[in-house]
Amino acid sequence: MAATCPECDAELDVDEFDVEENEEVSCPECGSTLRVVTTSPLELEAVDDEDDEDEEDDDDGDEEDDEDLDDDEETGGDEEDEGDWDK
C-alpha cells in the first residue's frame, strides 16, 4: 500500500503488514523520519527533532534521579541511626 510523506508529499511504498504502530520509517525522497500512526489505513506523521531531543533529555534526567536516590538512601540510613541515638 502506498502512503504519502507528510513532509514532501512523496509516495512511499510501505506494506501495512510489514510495519507496526509507532514504528519509524524514513522517507527516501526527503530523508524525514516518519512514525506509523495507524496501519489500517496506513497513516504516517513526521517525527519532530524536538521530540528526539526531549527523549534524550529525559534519559539524562533519569540518571540524575538515580544518583539522587543513592544519596537519599545513604542519608536516610544515617537519619535512622541518628533517630536511634535520640531514644
Counting H and I runs of at least 4 residues, what is the number of helices?
Answer: 1
Biggest β-sheet: count, sense, barrel?
3 strands, antiparallel
* SSE topology string: EEEEEH
Indicate the percent of residues in helices: 40-55%
Structural class: alpha+beta
> From the alpha-carbon coordinates, what is the Rg to the nearest angstrom?
24 Å
How far the N terminus sits from the C terminus, by CA atoms, comes to 74 Å
Rounded average pLDDT: 75
Low-pLDDT ranges: none
Strands across the major sheet, in which order? Answer: 3-4-5
Number of strands: 5
Which band does the percent of strand residues land in? 15-25%
Q: Which geometry do the CA atoms define? A: elongated
Give me a quick take on this structure.
The protein is α+β, with helices and mostly antiparallel strands and about 90 residues long.
Index terms:
alpha+beta, three-stranded antiparallel beta sheet, two-stranded antiparallel ribbon, elongated
Question: What do you see in this structure?
Answer:
- With 87 residues, the chain is an alpha+beta fold.
- The strands form 2 sheets. Strands 3-4-5 form a 3-stranded antiparallel sheet, with no helix packed on it. A two-stranded antiparallel sheet has the order 1-2.
- The termini are far apart.
- The protein is 44% helix and 24% strand.
- The mean pLDDT is 75.
- The chain is built from 1 helix and 5 strands, in the order E-E-E-E-E-H.
